[in-house]
Amino acid sequence: MLKQRVITAIALVAALFAAAAAGRLALDAALAVLLGAAAFEWLRLAQHPRTVCVVAAAAFAAALLAGHVAGPPLAGEVLLAVLAAACCAWLLIAALVLRGAQRGARIAHAVSTLLAFLLLAAAWLALMQLIDRGFVYLLSVLVLVWLADIAAYFAGRRWGRRKLAPAISPGKTWAGVGGAVAAVLVVAVAFARLAPQVPAFSTLLQQRLVVPVALALLAALVALSIIGDLFESLLKRQVDAKDSGRLLPGHGGVLDRIDALIAVLPAAALIDLWLRR
After folding, report:
1. Phi, psi dihedrals of residue 81, rounded to the nearest 5°
2. Would you say the pTM of this structure is higher than 0.90?
3. Where does residue 240 rank: exposed (0-12), middle (13-18), buried (19+ CB within 10 A)?
4. For residue 65, what pLDDT is reported?
5. C-alpha–C-alpha distance, residues 10 and 248, integer Å
6. Which of 49, 87, 220, 233 is most buried per CB count within 10 Å?
C-alpha cells in the first residue's frame, strides 16, 4: 500500500510540474479540474445522486476557470471577505471535530453541500493568489502540507499510542500531530537559513515577523491541515465510506488527497495578503 501511495504521489507531482511547464492557462485548467473532481466526491458524500454530482461538479469547475480567465480580478476587499469567511468556517469545523473526537459528530448533508462550494471556491481563490506570487511560492505552501502529512504518518506509526480522534479517525494519534509540527518547523527554519533567497512562504514568514510568531503561524497551519483531514474523515464516516473515491490508487479519491490543502490554502493566502500590506 505504501509503495502504491508513493508512486501515485510522484505521478501527481509530475503532473503538476507538467501543467506548470505548459503555461499558466494549462496549470489553472488542471487545478480547476482537480477541484471539480473534489466537488464531485464531496457531493457524493453529501448523498446527492451521481448525475447531479457530475453536472454540478463540471459546472463548478468550468465556472472557476471561466471566471478567472474572462472576468476581472476580485477586488481586494471581496477576496479578503471570501478567504476570511472560509477561515471562520474552518474554525467552526475545528470546534465540531474537537467536540466529536471521542463520541463522534454529524453534519447535515445540506450544510455539507454549502460548505463544499464555499470552501472549494475559497481554496481556488487562494490558489490563484499564491500562483500570482510565483509557482515556486505556491509549491512552498503545498510542500508544507505534504511534509506535515508524511511526518504525521511515520511518527504515528512509530510512536503513536494516544488516539487523537478515535470516533472520527482511529488511525490519527497525538504523536502524529507532534511529528507533523516538529518536521514542518525544523525544515522551515533550516530552509530559511540555507536558502533565504528562494521565495518560499515559510521563509517570508520568518523574514517579516519575529521567528516565534512565524513558527506559531506555521504550527497553526499544520493544525489546520489535520482538521481538514479529520473533517473529511467525518464526512466519510457518517455515510460509512472508506474513501471519497477510487480515482487515485493507494490514496482513494481526490478529496482524500487534498482535504488538508483545502483547509490550509485560504489561511495561507490570508496570511500572505497580510504580510504584503
Report:
1. -65, -45
2. yes
3. exposed
4. 93
5. 12
6. 233
Q: Of 227, 263, 258, which Cα lies nearest the Cα of 34?
A: 258
CA–CA separation, 127 and 224 (whole Å): 17
pLDDT value of residue 245: 84
- Cross-strand bridge partners of residue 248: 252
Assigned C-alpha cell, 207:
523574514
Q: What are phi and psi of 271, to 5 degrees?
A: -65, -40
Q: CA 189 to CA 237: how far, in whole Å?
A: 37
Cell 448525475 maps to which residue? 51
Bridge partner list, 163: 173
Residue 23 has pLDDT above 60, yes or no: yes
What is the distance between the alpha carbons of residues 20 and 135, in angstroms, rounded to a whole number? Answer: 8
- Do residues 273 and 133 lie in contact, with contact meaning Cβ atoms separated by under 8 Å? no
Contact present, 225 and 90 (Cβ < 8 Å): no
9, pLDDT greater than 80: no
State whether residue 107 is helix, strand or coil. coil
Report yes or no: 59 and 100 within 8 Å, Cβ to Cβ: no
What's the pLDDT at 72?
Answer: 64
Phi and psi at residue 275, in whole multiples of 5°? -65, -30
